[in-house]
Description:
two-stranded antiparallel ribbon; mainly alpha; 1% strand; 69% helix; 25 helices; 600 residues
Amino acid sequence: MNAISIVIGAICILVIAYRLYGYFFTKKVLKINDNEPTPAHKLNDGQDYVPTNKWVAFGHHFAAIAAAGPLVGPVLAAQFGYLPGLLWLLIGAVIGGAVHDAVVLFASMRRGGKSLSEVMKEELGPVAGFCTGLAMLFIITITMAGLSMVVLGALERNPWGTFAVAITVPIAMLVGIAYKKTGNLLMTSAVGFILLMIGVFVGPSIQGTWLGDLLTLDRQTLALILPIYAFFAAALPVWLLLAPRDYLSSFMKIGVFIALIIGVFIVNPAIQFPAIIPDFLGGGGPVVAGPVWPFVSITIACGAISGFHAFVGSGTTPKMIDKWEDIRVVGFGAMLVECLVGIMALIAATALHPGDYFAINSAPAVFATLGMDTVNLTMLSEQIGMDLEGRTGGAVTLAVGMTYIFTGIKWFSELTSYFYQFVIMFEAVFILTAIDAGTRVARYLIQDFLGQAYKPLKKTDWLPGNIFASALACFMWGYLLYSGDISSVWALFGVSNQLMASIGLVCGATIILKMADKRIYVLTCMIPLAYLYVTVNVAAYWMVKNVYWNSAAGGYSVLNGILSIIMVILGLIIVVTAARKWKDLWNSPRFVKGKAVDAI
């Protein structure tokens, strides 16, 4: 198998899916049209509710949802071979992820841009709303801390990467101010992009200077700086920092993967992994402990379907959409682009020799038990200038895989170490954009929760409330980041994230039954929901039995087991509550022979 075949096939599938299924789902199922103003127009406050050009909104949304998941998840899932991950990315994104993202965005906009917990409260009642809000607050907190830990690993004692990431902040604010003053998107985008590229390529020259020494930061210092930055990203008006920074970062994100696609077409690397690695299908692998099902669908979240997207789709993005028709581009389309990102990450990993891949992603002692030999790893380590063995987690594997593909170009050998460091920095920028939006969403959730006791907190245009909620959100995940406690619950994220996606589909199914012209349209949400909900519960059971409550396992943790059970119970309460509502809606006199009365 060669990489070009996979890329061409994937692009064709995703384009056809967007053109046919995307149009059907948004026009026929959701019945979107531009007859009514969006919440961004109705509630325009210049702070959070701001009508935004659809491509800027797309850039923000894509940058916010595409964090570490589509980069790292497919790399880790390569343990099973290239085929399970590839199939899940394509099927999951088209049937599940794009539908989930579009319907959550639509549901939030129908309720004035409210969070998913508020939407669930209004659609299914206070119990479902409370359980959803509690699950969302838990998941967003561990997500922000966990993603930030990846950034710490990329920027620790790395002045080039720190400079390149930091320079995006003033550039984004300049672009935000310029666009608000002039309204000229093309000019401000061009200037911002040029400045961003200058910042990236100037980075290496600061090493060894006073500025380089100043930006050579340890983990503890970075762990303090990141929450402080996130506070400003969450509290400042969306047009000033968050939206333009995410928009500009999307150029880098999409640009890097376009370059990777071009590199694949030039080099046409062979996929060195087999379609399936039988030894690990039943579990016991050195990268992912569990069996291929359910864990391929847990390991690969973003890129296929991810509950984290529900935070963005019911947080910042619904307050920015200019026209209802933009849901197709921003909600449905961004998910399919992210799927392509995940496929390219999978290609980068599987272009490596399996021995090299497992040597990077396994502790040396574990790799020694696999009976594999490395092939190109010594050469790559010399070219990059660092020892690559035992650098687990997926981020280094992606950077090495992308670098290895480009080594097929003769003149590239002089740029190997430079490109590797650029990809590491690029991954950090990718993740930081999700931290921007995620912290702002956490702010909304805190305002919704505490606003029940103190009403002014619910007002998103009340400055003291914004500052307090932003500070509290940053403190919650910042404390976990600084103390390192998040490492004990990071394994919960995969299961809880997909449980969150199930909740988003529960919301979508409820809304479709309420408004659809045909009852059968509810299958657009019910089919992915049925698969994902069963998958999540099987994975949670497996983790509790074989890891969390198994004293012989390396990840033994009674607390993690208890938290897993709590999350499963929250999901069960929501699903049972929804099922009762669905029964009433299904038998509603509104339907005659499966069609809505007002549509007959």
